[in-house]
Predict the structure of histidine kinase.
Amino acid sequence: MSNNINRSAHNVASSNEFASFALQSAGIGAWEFDPVTQLVRWDKRCQELYGISSQDVVLYEHTLGGVHPDDRSMVEQARQWASDTRSGGQYDIRFRTIAADTGQLRWIRCQGRAYFSPLGEVYRFVGIAQDVTQEQPTRQQLAESDGLNKLTTALSGTGVYRLDLLTDELVHSSTFAYRVCGNANAKLSRIEFLLALHPQDELLRQAALEQATRTGVLVYEPRFIWPDGTIYHTRIVGVMHRDETGKPLFIVGLVEELTQYTISPASLSTTELGFKALISASPVAMGVFQGQNLVVETANEAMYSLLECDREIIGKPLLAALPTLRDQSFAVLLQRAYTSGEMVTSSHQLVSFWQQGQLINRHYTFFFTPLWDSYRNLYAILATALDVSDQFIAQKRLEVSDARFRTIIEQAPMAIGLLKGRAMLVEVGNAKLFEAWGKTKAVLGLPIREALPEIEEQGFLELMDNVFNTGKPYFGHSMSVQLVRKKKPEVVYFDFVYTPLRDTSGAITGIMLMATELPQPIST
């Protein structure tokens, strides 16, 4: 009896240790919300991120106490939108929290999903939370430099907006608000924008956004329903900005009353003041090059600086105006995009140019996007050049962080391994893991079913698949497994946990496994 009690106490302690280590290592907290009872179940990591020390089950209203006062309305609107079937149940928002005891401010990202009954009523939310404070400064710098104020001045009377695709933050002019909801004084969130959109135009909006992700240009003609029932028809255009990997960051654009436009065959005519102003206001080097001769139709100051030229090249074929570009990557890739009619990208290209008498070396990522008219005729290429030189510093930091994490794993007092992808490739393992398995580092890179073929029929592979598919950790207590160690079959007992690993978007990318080998049970 005493041995059983001690073993049970040991199992409970081990489970708590595994859970704590897993969550701290991944830096992710898990939560679940019942909209009927208004109760939130969340782990210790979530409580830390919200800056609230409380019980594991609390009222939803209590969780809002940790949210920055200026962000609470946004958080509630995001929840309401996820509760609407038009959202697909998707919940993804970034906001600030303030710790009640220390006053520490954090930026966190909450991602989740709402589940609906056949009647369209939401009955459950599940999700994760992660600290993204370190990512915010870069986005704030982008927000300060994206030229929105400049664009608003250039297009006085036009509805100008900036949508952050990572935080869903919407910044806009008074004219934009008027065209969307009929109230020029309104401060619209993205959720309120979506709620004002005519329901029949939601698929149109989604299709336009998907196309913008591919082409870099947003164009669609949605209707909005004002509070008094008025249906207002608009045309929205925008330019998508990306990071050095090509990931969309934000869209800057404008909205106009549709009746003010005379639609030409080129549905996105770059001779329009609006589109030129979008490019001019962009902090990123951008230009439009028309026809087979790549005539420079418009460009901004950042592009002039990159090409070491001035406005004199407008209206001229690019290579005639700047013959030194003929054999350089910029011109070669630009011509390839026009010839193929497909988007061409090139990452971390070294560009050397003279600036104030000094030779400057910078690295750029290029995007060359074909522009088509309404008859599907290719008429121009939108070139975007993103300076990614500073990203090398971030990459070095990432490498250091990764090395530190691997060192922690190697020095951990328990067996730890990382399995990558649905195939469960053995990506990382410490010495205690290989010792427990009775294997060597030769199994690195192999699928787990090949690294440990003896577990094929013992149910562990099915447990791992379930963790990968559901995102729910699995805890094993005093479970036996037959392994081959030192070329001999052996029954071994473990306490262990399988924990899902997620990327920054919340998608599951693999599994972390942790185990402690237990003494052989005493026969009675």
About this structure: The two ends are 11 Å apart (CA to CA).
